[in-house]
């Protein structure tokens, strides 16, 4: 592990055969060691994962479901998990950005969404750990600072992390805190004009 990884195509359909070989050769030339990819929940990533493992690259598999909340792992995914673990793919995500309404059935975010997500994570994590896999506490959308880890601990399940559960992160903010402004003032030291200061006032940080 050299810490270098990348996200594969955000699709559950993957190239096969010789078309796949060309991409794997490219990953090797880039010295990639981690590859995040999606599975349709029925094993669509099996060939890619097997070939990545053969080339000493670790797949990180997201079991993709459209609007997965408030549910957990579904039956077809159970068999896919076993097959993926058998070939050496052990890192799994079963949810992604559950703080967004678009990730819930009916596209409505309940007030107690974090508690629901943590309860489902605990169920999924117990199951995946039992198979020999390593489950992810889901990444939240960029800027959301809800502390899901503390909720898991308060539920009495800190043991999941000791056993190999991990935290997925969507780190799109270029090594700055999520709320760090991406503008010339904060990035380059440009001074605010008096008009800007008067117009924005106490909310200048958000603007």
Write a brief structural summary:
The chain is α/β, with parallel strands linked by helices and 207 residues long.
Describe the structure.
27% of the residues are buried. Helix 3 links the parallel strand 3 (58-63) and strand 4 (91-93). It is built from eight helices and six strands. The model has no long low-confidence stretch (mean pLDDT 91). The protein is of the alpha/beta class and 207 residues long.
Please tell me the overall pLDDT. Answer: 91
Q: What separation lies between the terminal Cα atoms?
A: 40 Å
Measured by DSSP, the beta-strand proportion falls in 5-15%
Low-pLDDT regions: none
Structural class: alpha/beta
General form = globular
Tally of alpha and pi helices: 8
Largest sheet: 6 strands, parallel
What level of helicity do the residues show? 25-40%
Succession of helices and strands:
EHEHEHEHEHHEHH
Strand order, largest beta sheet: 1-2-3-4-5-6
What value does the Rg take, in angstroms? 20 Å
Query: In total, how many beta strands?
Result: 6
């Amino acid at each position: 592990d050299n810490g270098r990884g990348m996200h594969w195509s955000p699709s559950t359909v993957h190239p096969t055969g010789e078309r796949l070989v060309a991409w794997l050769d490219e990953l090797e030339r880039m010295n990639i060691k981690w590859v995040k990819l999606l599975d349709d929940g029925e094993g669509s990533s099996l060939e890619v994962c097997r070939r990545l493992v053969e080339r000493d690259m670790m797949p990180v598999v997201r079991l993709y479901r459209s609007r997965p909340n408030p549910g957990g792992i579904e039956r077809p995914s159970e068999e896919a998990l076993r097959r993926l673990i058998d070939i050496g793919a052990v890192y799994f995500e079963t949810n992604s950005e559950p703080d967004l309404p678009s990730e819930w059935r009916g596209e409505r975010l309940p007030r107690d969404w974090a508690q629901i997500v943590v309860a489902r994570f605990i169920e999924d994590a117990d199951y995946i750990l039992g198979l020999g896999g390593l489950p992810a506490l889901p990444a939240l959308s960029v800027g959301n600072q809800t502390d899901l880890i503390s909720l898991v601990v308060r539920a009495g399940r800190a043991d999941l992390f000791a056993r190999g559960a991990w935290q997925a992160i969507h780190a799109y903010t270029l090594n700055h805190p999520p709320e760090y402004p991406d503008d010339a003032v904060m990035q380059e030291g440009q001074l605010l004009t008096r008009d800007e200061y008067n117009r924005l006032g106490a909310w200048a940080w958000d603007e």
